[in-house]
Amino acid sequence: xxxxxxxxxxxxxxxxxxxxxxxxxxxxxxxxxxxxxxxxxxxxxxxxxxxxxxxxxxxxxxxxxxxxxxxxxxxxxxxxxxxxxxxxxxxxxxxxxxxxxxxxxxxxxxxxxxxxxxxxxxxxxxxxxxxxxxxxxxxxxxxxxxxxxxxxxxxxxxxxxxxxxxxxxxxxxxxxxxxxxxxxxxxxxxxxxxxxxxxxxxxxxxxxxxxxxxxxxxxxxxxxxxxxxxxxxxxxxxxxxxxxxxxxxxxxxxxxxxxxxxxxxxxxxxxxxxxxxxxxxxxxxxxxxxxxxxxxxxxxxxxxxxxxxxxxxxxxxxxxxxxxxxxxxxxxxxxxxxxxxxxxxxxxxxxxxxxxxxxxxxxxxxxxxxxxxxxxxxxxxxxxxxxxxxxxxxxxxxxxxxxxxxxxxxxxxxxxxxxxxxxxxxxxxxxxxxxxxxxxxxxxxxxxxxxxxxxxxxxxxxxxxxxxxxxxxxxxxxxxxxxxxxxxxxxxxxxxxxxxxxxxxxxxxxxxxxxxxxxxxxxxxxxxxxxxxxxxxxxxxxxxxxxxxxxxxxx
Length: 555
Known about the structure:
By secondary structure, the chain is α/β, with parallel strands linked by helices. Helix content is about 35%, strand content about 15%. The chain is built from 21 helices and 20 strands. Helix 6 (about 135-150) links the parallel strand 6 and strand 7. The protein is globular and about 70 Å long.
């Protein structure tokens, strides 16, 4: 006999979970007790805020392909964690969020911290469920695991009534996870694709998503290179294709550069693989007409719900990205110069003017491109600073990017901690703005306690940069609510046991980063960035002056 908490933990171990993240609560004490004896089998990383814990679970799922496990208490704990669920859904990251719930005898009375989790998380998650009977734990957990990792991966929220967790049962845990093969295309459909590609004059491959394997990425790269077709990565998935390949030509995302917009807009055929066609990847749904694109669209996705959701494809293929890539054969066409021109334009995007202020991020990112290890993991939250890891770094086959498609501030630090939990021996570098960092800087405590300390670069310009940029363009010279007074970040980081330095000049960065790498405690480097360096190619003053001039013209 075992109680529900023990059965839950044993079931997760049987399904393949090895790490979990959470903040404790009295509503799931039986689970915490069961975790007491599972060190080395299912470790519990104690976090400081449920939002940070959920971000860690989302990032862990995105990085490893195995569901990130998160435990939070009922009510406020669950609502704090909702930001991670939303991020996991938009990122297509497999995740299981376990939430404590009031006892079944209290439900429906608005008991202390009671929430209807199906109603709250139904629109945010891939599936939301509550387990009232202990005997159904293995069944529902196995289904939740499979739901999280198949089709379009995503988060599942599972509510756990307190009395269910303490009820005894002799039900056994599942024997293991379901082995579900990716759906694969048929030979006739692949032949049709080859025919359409051969007729094209300006083809583009648009790829993205989280559930690629090394073999699948290699197969797609071999096909694209042999066929000389340009490859564009969807928003924040540029780590899924080797950026050093001659066919890689950029990312379709926030701040989309002109040549990528033109490539998608002017293509006569788009082979979209594992892409959900979000707002950022389509430049606000303007590059392809809704619902019928001018470009011939071949849309491949592991979830049939994504095909035709926004755009009606000429050919829709329900297939996993790896199974699909494995079937592709070389296609020849006269588009070589089309691809070469796009690659030249991509290479030119790394040439930006020196930035005003003490630390020049153009020079810093150039140094990082040359010196970071091949298997580095970069993370970031949200803000104008994300242009540096997202647009000024080349991801090789082994490098990874953890960045939220949801645009969630505060994601970078927890994601970096999760990456160090998953891969302790890999270098993990988090880029964070000063506002972004303060959304979850308390998770440095999690890193310290878990021995999972990354290197954090704080791009400290004293403003909420993205909002200031919109403000200056819309209401120039009327600054309101976007200036920050910051704490001593170096002192704060040192209080969490991190090596920390303030970097006041570009020339000092390389040595400071070297000390950060040699540190055994993780490191925080507080970079002095001018608020004038708001974007790589337009200063804050230039932005303001342009808006003021425009107002004069219109008036």
